[in-house]
Amino acid sequence: MAAPGTQNQLSIHVGDDAVPKRLRREVDDNDVDYFQRAQWLRAAVLGANDGLVSVASLMMGVGSVKEEIKPMLLAGCAGLFAGACSMAIGEFVSVYTQRDIEIAQIKREKTRNQQVAGEREQLPNPMQAAFASALAFSVGAVLPLLAAAFIRVHKVRLAVVVIVASLALIFFGAVGAAFGRTPMVKSCARVLFGGWMAMAITFGLTRLIGSINGLQM
């Protein structure tokens, strides 16, 4: 008969080896810092969503007063270029300002001979943030352009832009919910409704302005 201590050690050893991989993954998931993950996830999803909604709304606005495909595509391309540059410059300035603030704080702490509690995170990279923002915006913006590029019938083109934009909005909402571990349906519905509102308002107001005497295109 084995000693009691030997039996306890054997049980513990067997128990550790018998832990399912799924349970281990769940334990690892509990250690994930979702706040840190939300930082880059928010920037990526926001950039792609902004590019999609901005360009789709711009194309819908132009399409409300012009039936030809060329003006819609030109407006969409202009929106893609302008928006990507704006996102990149804005993110660069914002992150560079944050970097300067952190560097100044580090210098103040060294001057005061204060010991920093814990390890300081790596300083943000403005160029990397600018490139990532421009890329995310462009990914979202190119979707409605591709959807409308080969459709000649005006009403069908507008409908396809709305459908593609809606599907992409649902996808972006689902990705954000999956990585952030937030309610899936609520996230998708919020993003989809916001995109619909932007496209509808742009379409309506542009059509209204285009109908005014002296402003017809």
Automatic annotation (TrEMBL):
The chain crosses the membrane at residues 40-60, 72-90, 129-151, 158-179, 191-210. It comes from the Eukaryota. It catalyses: Fe(2+)(in) = Fe(2+)(out). The keyword Iron applies. GO terms for cellular component: membrane; vacuolar membrane. Its main location: membrane. It is found in: Vacuole membrane. One of its GO terms (biological process) is intracellular manganese ion homeostasis. Keywords: Ion transport, Iron, Iron transport, Membrane, Transmembrane, Transmembrane helix, Transport, Vacuole. It is a multi-pass membrane protein. GO terms for molecular function: iron ion sequestering activity; iron ion transmembrane transporter activity; manganese ion transmembrane transporter activity. Belongs to the CCC1 family. Vacuolar Fe(2+) uptake transporter. This is Vacuolar iron transporter.
